[in-house]
Amino acid sequence: MKDSELKVSGQPQKEGNPASSVLDHEVLKYSFVSPFGVKQRLRELRLISSHIKNELPWLILALECLDFTTLAGDDTPVNVRNLCRKASHPLSSFATHKWMNDLHWKRVAAVCVYPQRVPDAVQFFKECSIKNVGVASVATGFPTGQYPLESRLLEIKYAVEQGATEIDVVISRCLVLTDQWDALYHEISEMKKACGDAHMKTILAVGECDSYENIYKASLIAALAGSDFIKTSTGKETVNATLDVGIIMCRAIRTIYEVTGKKIGFKPAGGIKTSKDAIEWLSLVKCELGDEWLNPSLFRIGASSVLDDIVTSIIHRARPPAVEII
What we know:
Elements: H1 35-50, H2 56-64, E1 66-69, H3 77-88, E2 110-113, H4 118-127, E3 134-139, H5 149-161, E4 166-170, H6 173-177, H7 181-195, E5 199-203, H8 212-224, E6 229-231, H9 243-260, E7 265-267, H10 275-289, E8 301-303, H11 306-318
Parallel strand pairs: 1-2, 1-8, 2-3, 3-4, 4-5, 5-6, 6-7
């Protein structure tokens, strides 16, 4: 995939300035993606990832960039509090081992819950005086987005009022599939306004966007409309986070940075179940966007089950080798 095939033209938007109220269609003019180029780059990235020798720093970073998630219909205050407890001290059961050093203080970046469960998470962290784990809430008719914009904006405002510091919004895929790019830009801009000071992650639901070009265009529009992050999936689609789509979204992020100077975060979510998966995503971001993106302010992993495997892998690699007694 050549950089010349993935570029944005039009009037640059300076970093820190609010998004324009009108979409400049120049940004969509050169949205051509080469499937062959994507496959070739994917092979290169997998080869790079397979040659990583010292995995421990990557695993620690994966833990620190994790949005630990529960988005189930049977979520209760009790299991949300359990989620928060685990998110706060995922390595606490090994705290007495000297070889753990400071690792037992490592925490995930945020927990992610439904709006109704936000107060449970906020209350837990307040009671425990924990200030460095964010509370993210999905909103805007998650996971389908098939609701009127007015009610979706009210959902954002409710979650923020309850104490959410991050909002994961979901776009209307119908707007993508029917080329209603102005409407998509307007929708995301209004969502950003409703978020206020809360960071907004915009979920594209890539498995339902139909084509690489649509994913690339939606990524550009989401970034230009004010998103702090773009996110692959809700985790509820048939196809969720895949590395080929990650390449396309990261190229859109890179293009936005080159044109506007604004850094947009990236969050793959859905289907990330092993520590190996997490390292592959970190390696992709390093290769496509650089080391500047390898921190929780610009990269997150959305998952509900990968934490256990990451913790197990950290313990396995951090534990000193057994001494053989003769």
